[in-house]
Design goal:
40% helix, alpha/beta, single chain, 146 residues
Length: 146
């Protein structure tokens, strides 16, 4: 039976922290799906398509990685994709508490097990929000992007 992991997020933008989680999770699974969550209220279809395309470029040489977008419940998309595991990154106690609650929901309603990977040293403060804010104020954000 193929072990498929699912790494979900808005990835706005996809950071070196996200890349770290992907590279560390990949050896645990036969297949890893990076799923970009769509909010029709926040993003246009073009923005989501560009985000998916950008992430695909990063992993173009890795056939075990699939990049998709989705706009339904994560548990429904996981079932559709044949995923049994959700991969999540944790930077702090605050992240842990949120992910613990989500893991309970995903296990109860979707029969999905959650795998938590802790941020590597030096990446605990890297977030998409921080990168977006720095970029908005004209700062160079290249060190935070893969």
């Amino acid at each position: 039976m193929e072990r498929t992991g699912l790494f979900t997020g808005t990835f706005d933008p996809f950071t070196v922290g996200h890349d770290s989680i992907v590279r560390r999770a990949l050896p645990l699974f036969d297949r890893l799906i990076i799923a970009v969550a769509v909010s029709k209220l926040k993003n246009t279809d073009e923005e989501i398509a560009a985000r998916v395309a950008d992430i695909k470029k990063i992993y173009a040489d890795e056939p075990r990685i699939k990049v998709i977008s989705y706009s339904d419940l994560t548990i429904d998309m996981a079932k559709r994709e044949g995923a049994s595991f959700i991969v999540r990154g944790v930077r702090s106690v605050k992240d842990y508490e949120y992910e613990r609650e989500q893991a309970e929901f995903n296990r109860r309603f979707g029969n999905l097990e959650t795998v938590l990977l802790f941020a590597e040293p030096g990446m605990e403060s890297v977030s998409s929000t921080l990168v977006r804010e720095l970029k908005f104020f004209g700062r160079d954000v290249n060190e935070f992007l893969p």
